[in-house]
């Protein structure tokens, strides 16, 4: 009769689907090749936060905004400090006004007076991008606008990001946001422009109390690396399998 | 407030208790509209395929209509995304550099494939009509007619053979495409559910059931919309014919046909039951396993969003229409009401997933409330506000009106059976 | 065989070919998988250098030492020895050329960041010398009485 339906079906399906796959769009490396690519790297950046030393001055947040050109009065920040006050009734009061940009001067938390006599525990927790080994944010970017460098930093290509916000939704730590001026995704990158020149990130530089420290996990002589590998440290939310690289001293069960 | 300070999301997010500084409701009304519109597309197509592939003769008329309506819905499925993107001029990038580990990257491929299938199927179904129009308009004068004729000529893609054999081949091709289209339509909407279900950071979204729930409710909404639009249009046409009088026979001025409605309703109810069962399963599991997020989820679902979820979605949007459709003595009016409620219910499901998933903070210690912008005072509050949503809802009907001028889908005089 | 059935396929292939052609023009040449696998390494390579070239603002204490040795000597023997110059004086980029003077933050709010009393047992905050804002010379600038480079001295 006519060409068989089977032939037509094969041609139609095969043709459309085969040409629909932009095969030149990507190159696959085997797992071994991928591991080898990173195994050679001389640098793997990590961070150590000592929450016992943090006094909540917020100068790190201010320095970060200045250094990285995040508009000072915009309600987003690449790094922030959280205040935890656990009271005797078992309640945990947490706040981070403007990310701790102006420090913590008031002992009221969201207009609630807390009697110092009622405090069981109180401390500060600085947070920033964890530059994860399995960054969920990179996995979900539809266009390849965010990626991980060989030294472990997750960067965002401002000229390619379409602003869909999937990476922001995918980060379990809430470190990503839309930059109010550039209108693309943004986040802490350990001041990549500084650490690539042998300087410290702005927040590390400005912390007078040594609560924030940068580490190179591939350098056995790095004193901070020694602390991370030989002393008890914790990470945030490891149940998501992201393998975060910001390590904490003095983390508490109440920390979110 | 200068431009610099208006962070995306701050204008419609109200934070309560402790929320991380960078958290806002980033995925707002347009991300609710997007799965809703793609769901309508998928559902309309499945309805059309029930006739073309499975030979449900009763659905022939509505199948024609829902196929063309599916085409009108297609660009509108992409519209919410264009309105949402912070960089809409870069919207083609998922087609240029798709990062396939991302569910959204699948969008470019699946959407394009699906669009090609729908367009091809319509072409095969209407090719004979296009050719007939090219010849019919040949002798007629007037610029508008000449332009219309040119459009038809382009639409034929030069295939003028309308012999019996050629038309049989057309019909076979349409059937094949309708068959291929069903899994593609399911994929189109299943992956939209995967977009949410795979976000492990979001305690409400992360679930393997999400893609399946989305597909089921998508088909429900698609069938409901097509049935409702079909009823409205047919009844309207019958009303006009009766009013203008003329030598119309009783059979010609019939409105919506009962058999079509009954068969379509059966399918609707089937998918509706499937959708509700899965959602119930998800809810029961969450409460039973009581993971770390259960405390805040419970307070959101049973507290703040109780009305949205249990009153608006489950009762008004699912239970009431279900009862209305299975009670004996079903009238056209009652059916139409039930369909409207179903459409509302599916919309609320999208709302409760998208907005509900952002109603609690990643810290599990705070809440975010979505204050949808009503009167826009900037481009952003228009795009991501009520009027942006209304624009998206209105557009498919407008597009359908235009498309229908060239591809009439409400012909009552079927050329071949 | 009725070949007209393949025409829509032809249109489809044409469309997809157009996308491939568009890729040649619109996608930068260095876009691809670099270093790691496709999941984490798919990007435009030149972006890395763009980030490395981002302008540095804070220069660090060593930079100030070149010209302001005296201030640093005073600071280093005081209780503020760990406070960075740029915490109060702002980033030193562009100083002294073209910015002869750096803006100096003398506000009370700056000092209160560390010195507002908060009785928090698990943080070093409790160990800092602090005041209760309300009761200690309210609204006055701290620097009226305290030398920030050697704060124990009070002109009281």
Account of the 3D structure:
The complex is a heterotrimer of chains A (256), B (417) and C (156). Chain A has a domain at 45-132 and 188-249: Alpha-Beta Plaits, CATH 3.30.70. In chain A, 23% of the residues lie in helices and 18% in strands. Chain A has eight helices and ten strands. In chain A, strand 7 and strand 8 (185-186) form a beta hairpin. Chain A starts with a helix and ends in a 7-residue tail after the last strand. By secondary structure, chain B is mainly α. Chain B has a single domain, classed as Formate dehydrogenase/DMSO reductase domain (Formate dehydrogenase/DMSO reductase fold), CATH 1.20.1630. Chain B has a two-stranded antiparallel ribbon. Chain B is globular and about 75 Å long. The N and C termini of chain B lie far apart (64 Å). Chain C folds into two domains: 3-52, no CATH class; 61-154, no CATH class. Chain C has a two-stranded antiparallel sheet with strand order 1-2. In chain C, strands 3-4 form a two-stranded antiparallel sheet. In chain C, a hairpin with a 2-residue loop joins strand 3 and strand 4 (150-154). At the A-C interface, helix 1, helix 2, helix 3, strand 4 and strand 5 of A face helix 1, strand 1, helix 2, strand 2 and helix 3 of C.
Span between N and C termini of chain C?
Answer: 105 Å
Please give the largest β-sheet of chain A. Answer: 3 strands, mixed
- Given as residue ranges, the uncertain stretches of chain A (5+ residues, pLDDT < 50) are 1-12, 14-29
Mean of pLDDT of chain C: 90
- Assembly context of the chains: heterotrimer
- Strand order in the sheet with the most strands of chain A: 9-1-10
Which range best describes the helical content of chain A: under 10%, 10-25%, 25-40%, 40-55%, 55-70% or over 70%?
10-25%
CATH topology of the domain at 45-132 and 188-249 in chain A: Alpha-Beta Plaits
Instruction: Specify Rg of chain A, calculated over alpha carbons.
Output: 23 Å
Detail the poorly predicted runs of chain C: none
Order of helices and strands of chain C: HEHEHHHHHEE
Known CATH architecture of the domain at 45-132 and 188-249 in chain A: 2-Layer Sandwich
Distance between the termini of chain A: 70 Å
Count of discrete domains of chain C: 2
Shape verdict of chain C: elongated
Structural class of the helix and strand makeup of chain A? alpha+beta
Class from secondary-structure proportions of chain C: mainly alpha
